[in-house]
Q: What sequence folds into this?
């Protein structure tokens, strides 16, 4: 696959703060790349630099081998993390307005149908629900039939139904051949949608590859999971170095049989025992740490 | 519970305001600036309410020529302006820029019959001469000869109306455009537009056009209605007046665009827009003439777009001037518009 977007030694400073610190990577045409990281890792700044919304302090970004310019503007679709739309304008008027900004545009009727906008087509944009607004914003981002689509936390704040609906729509865009760069806090979302993921922390890319390759690179063990009440922290932490989250004890082991024997020896009930492979969330926490970020 | 929430919001808003140093600075600085400017421009130890021009020969410079006139010059609250030309100053009387013109050596004086100030000053003049003559021999009495400005009288209404219409345009242009852009920026509407091929110049031009037609439409209606009810003077061409007002509108909108080019805070925008609008309101000769004001103040007025709109409109409406006669004003407005628009587009910030 050809490289559609190349990021080279990208740096962005805000006063003394270096938000993006020497970031380099390539995005291949037709792929879906997920940019993950804790709050303040530099994801949004990186994606906004790539969108041409912010100007880098140093480094370069090229689109199809050329610096970001008019061609990029015409061919890029962008959905920001927080977008306000003009007030007192209906959904249809908004779509028409944005369609007039571009030389080549999608069929508005088709977009309305594809993204289920019919029911609120004549509604003021201020009166849309979170899910409706995200669908409209995605439709606006696709109004120019983009070759590259930037989605900055597109499903934040949506209910599970709306989130899965948006995933379907993103898959459709990908199936139509567009390249997608996505930032998200949801590991499941990244795993479901992305061909590659890049994990950022402190302004740097600390891991970048296909999700399964990254998991294989970092883990050769599994997680034995029990209810917290079945294995109290005092025992779990002393005997198994277990960690606790969401009312569950997580025991990481590369010898499941031995771990189960130990649990039985301690008379710990196994009715709620689950054994699972390590997932992206484990990888994320492993790489970025467990401490709370601002 | 409701009051508790209101109180919490009140405290939060105050905290935000006081921590926003630029907004705070503007809120304090702006009234101070206004007070300083107006204190300097229009007040001193002896505030003068009326303006009397008196003729002097070139070598004489500001010397009173007879006892009665000397008595008159002792009247408080009248500013006496020495002048050397009759014709030029008769025109100023006609346009309410001067209340009375007197040639003390002959006792001849000129007033505008429709000027309330002219009437009061005339009464003071007659009283001063009568009082002075009472103490003189009959042979030494100084006579007064009244003359009314020739030609059509210009009512104060005729004189003030072009400025009022221009000022109305100014408010609509400055605040109508400035606040909208600042709000768009604050909400993130501009950020979304930046992700499209739209350029700052395109965006600003669209804003100018959108505001322009609205202002023109509103002002045409205001002009028509006011003319119907007040029947003010309109000697020039409506097309010429339309051109002046259109160019004036563009120039004033460009002022608003310049203010809104980078600001993302309504309080700062409000301060900046007031900084533009208040001096224009009082120093552009809309309500009263700057005749007799400090020369620096008069020069300052010439850099204000509203001065040129008002003067050009007055020349067209009162004197029937053509475009060639107001070309200097049009040129200033056109150049100012271009410069402001280019600077605005250059420094424009989407976020």
A:
């Amino acid at each position: 696959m050809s490289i559609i977007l190349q990021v080279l030694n990208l740096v962005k400073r805000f006063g003394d703060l270096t938000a993006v610190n020497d970031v380099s990577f390539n995005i291949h045409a037709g792929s879906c790349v997920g940019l993950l990281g804790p709050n303040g890792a530099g994801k949004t700044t990186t994606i906004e630099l790539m969108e041409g919304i912010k100007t880098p302090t140093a480094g370069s970004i090229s689109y199809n081998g050329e610096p970001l310019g008019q061609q990029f503007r015409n061919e890029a679709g962008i959905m920001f993390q927080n977008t306000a739309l003009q007030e007192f304008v209906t959904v249809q008027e908004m779509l028409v307005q944005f369609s007039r900004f571009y030389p080549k545009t999608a069929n508005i009727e088709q977009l309305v149908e594809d993204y289920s906008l019919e029911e609120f087509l004549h509604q003021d944009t201020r009166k849309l629900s979170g899910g409706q607004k995200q669908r409209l914003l995605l439709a606006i981002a696709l109004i120019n039939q983009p070759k590259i689509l930037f989605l900055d936390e597109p499903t934040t704040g949506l209910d599970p139904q709306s989130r899965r609906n948006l995933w379907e729509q993103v898959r459709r865009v990908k199936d139509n051949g567009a390249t997608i760069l996505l930032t998200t806090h949801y590991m499941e979302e990244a795993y479901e949608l992305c061909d590659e993921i890049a994990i950022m922390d402190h302004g740097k890319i600390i891991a970048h590859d296909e999700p399964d390759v990254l998991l294989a690179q970092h883990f050769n063990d599994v997680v034995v999971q029990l209810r917290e009440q079945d294995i109290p922290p005092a025992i779990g932490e002393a005997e198994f170095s277990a960690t606790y989250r969401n009312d569950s004890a997580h025991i990481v082991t590369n010898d499941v049989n031995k771990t189960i024997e130990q649990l039985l020896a301690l008379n710990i009930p196994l009715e709620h025992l689950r054994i699972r492979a390590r997932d992206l969330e484990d990888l994320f926490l492993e790489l970025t740490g467990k401490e709370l970020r601002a | 519970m409701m009051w508790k929430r209101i109180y919490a919001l009140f405290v939060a808003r105050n905290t935000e305001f006081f921590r926003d140093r630029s907004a705070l600075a503007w809120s304090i600085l702006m009234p101070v600036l206004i007070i300083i400017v107006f204190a300097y421009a229009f007040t001193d130890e002896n505030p003068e309410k009326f303006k009397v021009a008196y003729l002097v020969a070139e070598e004489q410079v500001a010397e009173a020529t007879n006892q009665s006139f000397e008595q008159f010059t002792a009247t408080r609250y009248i500013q006496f302006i020495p002048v050397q030309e009759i014709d030029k100053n008769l025109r100023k009387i006609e346009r309410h820029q001067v209340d009375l013109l007197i040639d003390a050596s002959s006792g001849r004086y000129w007033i505008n019959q429709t000027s309330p100030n002219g009437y009061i000053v005339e009464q003071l003049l007659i009283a001063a001469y009568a009082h002075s003559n009472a103490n003189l021999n009959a042979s030494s009495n100084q006579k007064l000869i009244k003359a009314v400005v020739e030609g059509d009288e210009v009512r104060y209404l005729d004189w003030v109306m072009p400025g009022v219409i221009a000022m109305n345009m100014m408010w609509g242009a400055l605040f109508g455009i400035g606040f909208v852009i600042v709000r768009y920026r604050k909400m993130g509407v501009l950020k979304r537009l930046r992700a499209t091929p739209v350029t700052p110049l395109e965006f600003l031009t669209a804003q100018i056009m959108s505001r322009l037609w609205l202002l023109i439409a509103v002002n045409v209606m205001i002009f028509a209605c006011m003319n119907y009810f007040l029947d003010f003077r309109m000697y020039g061409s409506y097309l010429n007046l339309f051109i002046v007002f259109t160019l004036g509108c563009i120039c004033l909108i460009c002022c608003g665009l310049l203010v809104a080019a980078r600001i993302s805070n309504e309080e700062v925008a409000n301060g900046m827009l007031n900084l533009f609008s208040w001096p224009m309101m009082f120093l552009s000769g809309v309500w009263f003439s700057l005749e007799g004001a400090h020369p620096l103040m008069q020069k300052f007025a010439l850099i204000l777009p509203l001065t040129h709109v008002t003067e050009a409109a007055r020349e067209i409406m009162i004197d029937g001037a053509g475009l060639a006669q107001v070309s200097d004003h049009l040129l200033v407005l056109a150049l100012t518009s271009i410069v402001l628009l280019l600077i605005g587009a250059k420094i424009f910030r989407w976020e």
In short: Chain A touches chain B at residues 51-53, 70, 73-74, 76, 78, 80, 82-86, 98, 101-102 (CB under 8 Å).
